[in-house]
Fold Undecaprenyl-diphosphatase.
Amino acid sequence: MTIIEALFLGLIQGITEFIPVSSSGHLAIIENLLNIKDVSGLPFAAAVHLATLIAVFAALRREVKKLFIEICRGIYDITENFRIYRHNRHEKDARRYKRIVSNNYRKLFLLLIVSAVPTVIEGYLLENAAIFAGNSLFTPAVGMLITGIILLVADFFPRGRKIPKDVSYSAAFVIGVLQGLTVFPGVSRLGITLAVCLAYGFQKKFAIKYTLLLAIPVFIGAFILECTQLPSIPMTWGLLGCYVLGAAAAGIAGYFCIGKMMKVLQNKKFYGFSVYCFIIGGVTAVGSILFS
């Protein structure tokens, strides 16, 4: 892997990760066309996922901070309930317990957990199949076409009004299961998850934030999995520089892309992204057939 390749792949990852056009599909297509897959691909993927994780934390720092505060308060309330239970049992009293899920941020945290669990499990189980699928042009092309269809359909969903307090845990679980299938290249995690949220009647602004926040456990899981499977390759200063520069490109591009796309996705339809996926997927599918 050269510095130019690392910067190019990092930039593509950072931009396409946070728009509904599939970053994995773009990377699979580019890597197959330019034949730049090598043994350094896995540690590079780990570095890039770490960078995009940092980008999400930075771009959504207010939401993450509020979630963290409410998690700490929730833990405190749980410990207080244990104390109340012991008091009531010992003193034959009837003190009221504190309500644990007392606001939207606490409910949001639980919803994210419920969605993240099936996604991470599926990602682990389907990892080898996804890697195999990414070794050809045809599979990511089909994934892009599927993404285009789903985005096109999503434009016809009625505008929802649900915020965390209105969302069921079963809906969060289904969202997580369907998001887990986006491990295959070409199927956009952001696009599919956002479409499913809208189908469940999420308020569009909340659906976007939920989808982006749900990227945090996904990136953490991907980073840990990739770190546990790192090949024993000799590390050189040049290779280390490629990882750092590629990750920096992904992180910086991702940070600016998140803020921009939150406004674009909230105010516009998905038609343009759908057409883009159809064009890239169609051209790639035809090319894979003609030149196979």
Remarks:
- The mean pLDDT is 88.
- The radius of gyration is 21 Å.
- The CA atoms of residues 118 and 177 lie 5 Å apart.
